[in-house]
């Protein structure tokens, strides 16, 4: 264990390794008196089946009753957490671990080179810039956007020549954004702020204006009301937002839940994607070099995920999983871009492809059992080389402008802090650009990839990380993390919070469940709709493997996941409450009968289906929906649900209802708590201070409920 200072090391040496001690009754162990949650008499009918929804009133995030309930729940939760004797020790040590300079890869815009940096414990990263003479200054400091650090920088985009910039801010973690346009030299705001922008990039056309996306502001609560018609706008500088032109999405024929617009690097084409769900999109292009050019259809269906990677004049390079579940790159002329004219450029392989471009090359990243491999191609389709990576893990980056001389990438894994490398594509050589300054001794830990067998015989990979020399005697506190949905791949990466758990002597395991994208579209589909139970079975089998192999035991095991992973934890803990000692569902999708009625939730139907699709789908969803499967008289694991009161992606009502059900029906002595972060959303942009406090609470709660009474 490497400490920042010798004195701190002596003081904390006895506070960083959990040890079970003789159990002594404390106030923490007493049965909790939960706030009273009124049960209403609301019911819904699905195909003749009446379903009670007694806590429907908690969906009203603007009511005084809900506000009072949130306050009362937090009072109970924090009273419990404050009595855990080593909670502050964990918080202090986590702050120490976090307190190191973090620097992002540089990128050039106009006359300046920009980079992101955090001095250590700053709530938000600061954007710096360096001029041609090497003078460096602060360009944007999001820490000044609000006093408590809860307003974050969400997007930063520069005009073609780099003289103008537009950036989006998020307030209180909300997905609703504001866009501010500034002069790069003076940093002065040039025009009134654009408001009510959601799920949007900022893509400039020259220096004239930019494209962005949003919904009409909904009636009722902007945090929970349904939004389902996304529109692409063009904002011309010097005009008001009310004058912005709707480019796509304004008619019933163009109605889609997610619409995006991106201008190609050469300003030649506007590329528009349109989707009704989180998987599958239509694709259109518009030639911006010709006045009043028509919108040209590339794909008129949503049977694939297809996007434009790049173009050279009228030659388009597309990435698609159409007829290629693991993805391929194809080329086509923009004049006749439909699928029958596509030509393979990088053919599909047995491994999932994620390509990027920079410095006049294409970089083909492949996932091989969730581990990165990268190959370099030229624009004629010739393979230049296999890029030698620093080790076994994940890479990010390999993206730059076409005229760049150097491409940057980050390498990391679960026990290796991220290091930035500069790659010279002509020579094929990598060099360290910025080594991590994290005070973490990687050599003291190891990561091991294993394959275990799920219920139906499917082999599933899992990476397990722990201190070297850990005895597999079943006594190790273990967190099993999973997601299993939306084609999301969990690849190895370092985080300070995970490092804290490892330093505490914990085992950290990540399972690559079906529903994710680790093995392509087929792996994703195998965890969707009527096959969603496969995801839960994979997670259960992962837990059983960890117990069976002696990494941990049921009473030393915690399950954790967020968003769709929160659903995963909620479903597994209601199906197998005996499997774990601690359950940690975060910002979870927990009411599967009504998720599609909130914000953009209907877009998740590709993965879940909805209760309105058919009676069969309704019965299937009701069969695993966590809110509907809490059973009276059952002993549930110690549970701490976490959510944010400004979460407008997975609305907090999911978590509120689940907490109410657990508190009303649990028959055991384990705590059933909900920790509601105020002025916070789904997670992005959360201030460092709040993140440290939250993880100190999570780890303290977890260890305490595993019977660990002091840290040594």
From TrEMBL:
Taxonomy of the source species: Bacteria, Pseudomonadati, Pseudomonadota, Gammaproteobacteria, Alteromonadales
First-level EC class: hydrolase
Species, as recorded: Pseudidiomarina gelatinasegens
Domain Peptidase S9A N-terminal: 39-435
Pfam families in the record: Peptidase_S9, Peptidase_S9_N
Protein family according to the UniProt entry: Belongs to the peptidase S9A family.
Name used for this protein in its record: prolyl oligopeptidase
PROSITE patterns, alphabetized: PRO_ENDOPEP_SER, PROKAR_LIPOPROTEIN
Top-level taxonomic group: Bacteria
């Amino acid at each position: 264990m490497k400490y920042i200072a010798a004195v701190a090391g002596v003081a904390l040496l006895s506070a960083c390794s959990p040890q079970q001690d003789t159990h002594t009754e404390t106030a923490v162990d007493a049965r909790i008196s939960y706030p009273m949650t009124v049960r209403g008499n609301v019911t819904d009918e699905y195909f003749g089946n009446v379903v009670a929804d007694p806590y429907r009133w908690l969906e009203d995030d603007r009511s005084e009753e809900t506000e009072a309930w949130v306050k009362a729940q937090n009072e109970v939760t924090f009273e419990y957490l404050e009595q855990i004797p080593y909670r502050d020790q964990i918080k202090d040590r986590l702050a120490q671990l976090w307190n190191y300079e973090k620097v992002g890869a540089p990128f050039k815009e106009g006359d300046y080179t920009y980079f992101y940096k955090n001095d250590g414990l700053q709530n938000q990263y600061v954007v710096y810039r360096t001029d041609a003479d090497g003078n460096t200054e602060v360009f944007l400091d999001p820490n000044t956007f609000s006093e408590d650090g809860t307003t974050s920088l969400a997007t930063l985009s520069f005009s073609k020549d780099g003289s103008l910039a537009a950036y989006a801010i998020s307030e209180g973690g909300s997905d609703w954004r504001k866009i501010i346009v500034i002069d790069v030299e003076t940093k002065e705001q040039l025009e009134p702020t654009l408001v009510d922008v959601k799920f949007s990039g900022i893509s400039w056309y020259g220096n004239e204006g930019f494209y962005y996306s949003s919904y009409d502001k909904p009636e009722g609560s902007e945090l929970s009301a349904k939004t389902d018609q996304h529109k692409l706008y063009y904002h011309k500088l010097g005009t008001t937002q009310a004058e912005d032109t709707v480019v796509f999405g304004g008619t019933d024929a163009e109605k889609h839940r997610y619409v995006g617009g991106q201008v190609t690097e050469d300003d030649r084409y506007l590329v528009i994607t349109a989707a009704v769900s989180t998987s599958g999109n239509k694709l259109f292009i518009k030639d911006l070099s010709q006045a009043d050019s028509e919108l040209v259809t590339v794909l008129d269906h949503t049977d694939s995920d297809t996007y434009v990677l790049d173009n050279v004049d009228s030659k388009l390079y597309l990435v698609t999983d159409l007829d290629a579940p693991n993805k391929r790159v194809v080329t086509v002329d923009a004049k006749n871009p439909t699928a029958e004219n596509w030509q393979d450029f990088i053919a599909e392989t047995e491994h999932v492809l994620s390509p990027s471009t920079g410095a006049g090359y294409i970089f083909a990243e492949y996932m091989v059992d969730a581990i990165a491999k990268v190959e370099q191609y030229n624009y004629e389709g010739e393979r230049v080389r296999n890029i030698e990576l620093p080790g076994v893990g994940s890479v990010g980056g390999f993206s730059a402008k076409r005229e760049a001389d150097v491409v940057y990438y980050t390498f990391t894994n679960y026990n290796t802090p991220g290091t930035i490398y500069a790659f010279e594509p002509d020579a094929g050589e990598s060099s360290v650009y910025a080594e991590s300054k994290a005070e973490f001794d990687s050599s003291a830990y190891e990561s091991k990839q294993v394959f275990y067998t799920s219920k139906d015989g499917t082999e599933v990979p899992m990476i397990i990380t722990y201190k070297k020399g850990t005895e597999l005697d079943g006594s190790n506190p273990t967190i099993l993390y999973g997601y299993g949905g939306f084609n999301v791949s969990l690849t190895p990466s370092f985080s300070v919070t995970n490092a804290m758990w490892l330093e505490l002597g914990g085992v950290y395991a990540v399972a690559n469940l079906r529903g994710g994208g680790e093995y392509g579209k087929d792996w994703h589909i195998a965890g969707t709709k009527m096959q969603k139970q496969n995801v839960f079975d994979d997670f259960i089998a992962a837990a059983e493997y960890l117990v069976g192999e002696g990494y941990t035991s049921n009473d030393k095991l915690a399950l954790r996941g967020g968003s769709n992973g929160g659903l995963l934890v909620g479903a597994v803990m209601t199906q197998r409450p005996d499997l774990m000692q601690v359950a940690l569902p975060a910002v979870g999708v927990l009411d599967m009968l009504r998720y599609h009625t909130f914000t953009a939730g209907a877009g998740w139907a590709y993965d879940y289906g909805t209760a309105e699709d058919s009676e069969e789908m309704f019965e299937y969803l009701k069969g695993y929906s966590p809110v509907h499967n809490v059973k009276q008289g059952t002993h549930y694991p110690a549970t701490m649900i976490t959510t944010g009161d400004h979460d407008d992606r997975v609305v907090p009502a999911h978590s509120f209802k689940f907490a109410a059900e657990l508190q009303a029906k649990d028959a055991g002595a384990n705590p059933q708590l909900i920790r509601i972060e105020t002025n916070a959303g789904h997670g992005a942009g959360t201030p460092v201070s709040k993140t440290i406090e939250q993880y100190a609470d999570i780890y303290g709660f977890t260890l305490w409920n595993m019977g660990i009474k002091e840290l040594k």
